[in-house]
Amino acid sequence: MKIAHFSVVALPFMLLAACGGQAPQSVADQQAQLCTDLARFNTSVATLKSMSPSSTVSDFRGARDEVKTNFEQVKLTAQNVKNAKVAELETAYQDLDSTIQNIPETATLQQAMDSVSGQVAAVEAARAQMDADLNCP
Fold first, then answer.
1. Residues 6 or more apart from 65 whose CB is under 8 A from it?
2. What's the alpha-carbon Rg for the chain, to the nearest Å?
3. Is residue 12 included in any domain, yes or no?
4. What is the domain range of residue 60?
5. Distance of alpha carbon 131 from the chain centroid
6. Span 23-41, pLDDT tens digits
7. CA–CA separation, 124 vs 101, rounded Å?
8. Is residue 82 part of a domain?
9. What is the total count of domains within the chain?
């Protein structure tokens, strides 16, 4: 009898633990997470922008992949923030990504960097606007 009673009492707690047990984030927490993700995205864009003649094509591709991963996280987090205006950032990112994909294999790293500089600037401007709209620190 005691085992059955224990099971009925413990079941909700076990289910909660099995489902992760996380309480829904507050609006402020979700916004703070988006600001954190935007900062991480900004860092990855800065890394891409800082490629130098001594960088390798592998470095460039790694930086590009990091930008993509961080942008995907921004988009995912932004879905939970009501006033997040991610469309402009997404357009700027897509332009950057498209430009990178269209860089010929024969291009030097300097040529690749020169070809994406305008798109990097557009991404930075869109990210800065999003930071300002969200009042990110």
1. none
2. 21
3. no
4. 25-134
5. 13
6. 567 888 999 999 999 999 9
7. 19
8. yes
9. 1
Does 87 reside within a domain?
yes
**Continuous segment of H or E residues that includes residue 129:** helix 109-134
Neighbours of 130 (CB within 10 A): 22
| C-alpha to C-alpha distances, 130 to 27, 53, 124, 126, nearest whole angstrom | 16, 31, 10, 6
Q: How far is CA 93 from CA 87, 90, 98, 123, in A?
A: 10, 5, 9, 6
Check: CB of residue 68 under 8 Å from CB of residue 60. no
Confidence (pTM): 0.78
- Does residue 112 lie within any of the structural domains? yes
Residue 98 has pLDDT above 90, yes or no: yes
The CATH number assigned to the domain holding 118 equals 1.20.120
DSSP secondary structure string for all residues of 32-95: HHHHHHHHHHHHHHHHHHT--TTS-HHHHHHHHHHHHHHHHHHHHHHTT-TT---HHHHHHHHH
What are the tokens at 118?
A: 């305008």
> Contact 62/86 with Cβ under 8 angstroms?
no
In the DSSP assignment, the letter for residue 15 is: H
Is 108 in a helix, a strand, or coil?
coil
Q: What angle do CA 46, 40, 52 make, to 5 degrees?
A: 20
